[in-house]
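Dear colleague,

As promised, here are the two records you asked about, laid out in our usual form so they can be pasted straight into your sheet.

NAME FIELD: protein one
SEQUENCE, THEN STRUCTURE:
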Amino acid sequence: MPAGFQQFQHDFAAHLRDPRRIACPRGLPARRAGVYRELVFNNLCGVVDKCFPVCRAVLGETRWRRLCRGFLRDGALHTPWFREIPQEFVRYLGATPVPRLPCWLAELAHYEWAELAVDVMETALPPHDPAGDLLAGKVVLNPALLNLAYDWPVQRIGQAYRPRQPRPTHLVVYRAADDGVRFCEINPVTARLLALLAAAPSTGREAIARIGAELNHPNPDSLLDYGRQLLADLRRQGILLGSTS
């Protein structure tokens, strides 16, 4: 490819991303350049708007469009896949200081992106016994799952509620047997249990015992009974699939 054409592509792309500060390459009709500017921005917004409806609603249209402009201008877009643009947007919010934005917006965006991430996860169903003993057998987690921790109650944020103070929040996002994406708020102990089960194959009894040791729990028998009920509830919800021997 001629070097001159490559330079033109580079210059035109830079203009499309930041038309206010970077002039259009010479020789390109202004009307035609305007069509490309509109197409690029509208296509980006079409992807981002769909994934982050709550962020868009709480910011309002003017601030949201300004944020999308900043993402187009400054965001490090390394992927050619449209479905990966929302993840790039989440990374942009987490890494780029954007003035006058709510301090919880990056976490809210990550929470909204998690639904898409779980929905498109390519996972194979692992071998398991759906009715297996969750205490004695090795527990099998749903492979299409995210165990998330936030500083803010992101699942409650909306136009009617905007938190003023952080509140640590644990959520699990997973794909159910009907392929629908589910969200469930959990406590720190449940989050730790899921993390242990995801880190290495273990029986429910082993994972609960480890949590008891970490907490220095005074009554291991009562903790085991609580853990038995918790494992059963997580299986009913589809967060756990069952167990293997």
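NAME FIELD: protein two
SEQUENCE, THEN STRUCTURE:
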Amino acid sequence: MASAKRYAQAVFETAQTAGDYDSWTAHLSEMSDALQHKDLITIMNAPTITEDEKIEVIKLLVSNFPGDFETFCRLLILQRSVSDIPDISKQYQILVDSIKGISRVAVTSAVKLNKNEKTKLNKQLSDQLGKKIELSESVDESLIGGVVIRIGDKVLDGSIKGRLDSMRSSLLNG
């Protein structure tokens, strides 16, 4: 993870100099998606495939990417760090979000939130955090009711299941 943070910082500085965070975000995301394919990871990790051959594979994937991104991928191949791209992408997004004043929030609810509920939740969180909110939502029927909100490393569990689990724990532990 430490190397992913260093690479992300270098990419961030490059994007900052160019004034173009969004294209780097898109390129890293696209490469992360490509690396979800088992065959590509196998090729990138295969000791029998030369670095030049791996670079050619990447060049086919990144042919529409700017030269800086291709150079970055070449460096990752030479450093045997291509498999770090998903982590680099996540770390880079954290840096970009920080400079743009964005907080990414994951909301899990027992039922799908309607538009009004999402708008209200978004406003409340934005007011509390003093940042623009990017909500991603998922549904987990086992929550019974309420929501679980994840903001970075913090988890706010306002679900009925969470309350029941807490009550059960208190009863069992005295």
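A couple of things worth noting about protein two: Residues 2-18 form the longest helix (17 residues). The chain has eight helices and four strands.

Best,
R.
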